[in-house]
Amino acid sequence: MRTESTPMTRRPSIPAKLRPEEVTSTYRRVAPVYDIWARLTEHRARARCLELANVRDGESVLEVAVGTGLLFEQLVLANPSGRTEGIDLTDGMLARARRRVTRLPGAHHLAIGDARHLDFEDGSFDLLVNNYMFDLLPDEAFAPVLGEFKRVLRSGGRLVLVNMAISDALPSRIWEALYRIDARLLGGCRGVSLARTASEVGFIVEHEERLSQLGFPSEILLARKSG
């Protein structure tokens, strides 16, 4: 199933410009104001991510790249009897995420972590969600990271991905122009497309849609680990 509210394109993504250490320092710096950006440009996509995730109380859930915890808080609230884990590269982001959930019930835990090398056993989770991370990574990292996501999911486990999308709409072209001027203006994000790589890694892509908020295009994928 595919829902479109921003024009799709087959253009390849432009190269990632920020090195990993620059990503960490950039998000440490923007952590105090990140929620403003997120609510202006990403709120609708995050809400849709939560809807597609369809958290069932009692599941094991992992969010990779929790940021300030905007989605992680909702995952914990939806899963009071389950296990909810979250990781992020940036200590400043994690500090804010911890404040959001410190008084919430249930088994939840946040830690520094790297999506390329997840510190979890094979088949640990029923659901993995990841928002606005692949749009920071170089294209050659997509398959290895998705492979790591697949490893920690159980058979039939669900994956929901949200990223800045590639779009030919005029507002999207403006965002892209800003990125080309200085990638840090967009926190290092540029438009990407993950469906084909997810399929090549072995996920079954069940749903793909794109939506736009303030002209900022987001791609949302729901996939399932086969087998």
CATH class: Alpha Beta
Q: Would you list the SSEs in sequence order as H and E?
A: EHHHEHEHEEHEHHEE
Q: Report the uncertain regions.
A: none
In this structure, how is the largest beta sheet organized? Answer: 8 strands, mixed
Mean pLDDT: 92
Helix content: 25-40%
The end-to-end span amounts to 21 Å
Summarize the structure.
The protein has 227 residues and is α/β, with parallel strands linked by helices.
List keywords for this structure.
alpha/beta; 227 residues; Rossmann fold; single chain
Question: Any overview of this molecule?
Answer:
The structure is a single chain. The chain is of the alpha/beta class and 227 residues long. The protein has one domain (2-225): Vaccinia Virus protein VP39 (Rossmann fold), CATH 3.40.50.150. It has helices at 20-30, 34-41, 43-53, 70-78, 91-101, 142-152, 170-181, 195-201; strands spanning 2-4, 60-64, 83-88, 107-112, 125-131, 153-164, 203-213, 216-225. It has an eight-stranded mixed beta sheet with strand order 1-7-8-6-5-2-3-4, with helices on both faces. The longest helix is centred in the C-terminal third of the chain and has 12 residues, at 170-181. The protein is globular, with a radius of gyration of 16 Å. The mean pLDDT is 92.
What layout of secondary structure does this protein have?
Elements (H helix, E strand, L loop, with lengths): L1 E3 L15 H11 L3 H8 L1 H11 L6 E5 L5 H9 L4 E6 L2 H11 L5 E6 L12 E7 L10 H11 E12 L5 H12 L13 H7 L1 E11 L2 E10 L2
Parallel strand pairs: 1-7, 2-3, 2-5, 3-4, 5-6
Antiparallel strand pairs: 6-8, 7-8
Helix pairs in contact: 6-8
